[in-house]
Amino acid sequence: MHPNLDHPDFIDCSDLIQALNDCHLNLSFMERQFKCNNISDDVKRCLHEARLLRRRQNNEGGRQRAARIGAFMNGMREREERDYEIARQLAMKELALRDKLWK
Fold first, then answer.
1. Between helices 37-102 and 14-26, what is the axis angle to 10°?
2. The whole model's pTM is what?
3. Cα distance between residue 63 and residue 56, in whole Å
4. Whole-number Å distance between alpha carbons of 51 and 46
5. How far apart are CA 73 and CA 69, in angstroms?
6. DSSP letters spanning the chain
7. Are 3 and 44 in contact (CB under 8 A)?
8. CA–CA distance from 66 to each of 22, 53, 69 (Å)?
9. Which pLDDT does position 97 carry in this prediction?
């Protein structure tokens, strides 16, 4: 069984889909059961290839998004570490001043 064939993702298979629709329209129910099988198999193969292509494209897009997010998170960590170090140095100076005042 195949999905709805009117979807725009199946543009590459449009010739085969049209041939299958013509086969179904021009033959009776019993003839359709056997004579359209080869075309139906070709449509299924084409749809499978289209799905694999979309999967590869989606995986590549996901890898690129993950790399962008990873770079962003690394930048955030570096900024947090830098801010932490600045805050630590300020706190140490503050403590040193307080120690001088108490002596």
1. 140
2. 0.60
3. 11
4. 9
5. 6
6. ----TT-GGGGGGHHHHHHHHHHHHHS-HHHHHHHTHHHHHHHHHHHHHHHHHHHHHHHHHHHHHHHHHHHHHHHHHHHHHHHHHHHHHHHHHHHHHHHHHH-
7. no
8. 45, 20, 5
9. 84
pLDDT along the chain (103 residues), means of 10: 67 86 82 81 91 93 93 90 90 85 72
For 46-52, which contacts have Cβ atoms below 8 Å and span 24 or more sequence positions?
46/10, 46/12, 46/13, 46/16, 47/2, 47/3, 47/10, 47/13, 49/12, 50/9, 50/10, 50/12, 50/13
Token reading at 20? 């299958």
CA dist 3 and 55 (Å) reads 16
CA distances from 86 to 9, 83, 92, 96 (A): 53, 5, 10, 15
AA identity, residue 100: K
Report how far residue 73's alpha carbon sits from residue 92's, in angstroms, rounded to the nearest whole number.
Answer: 28
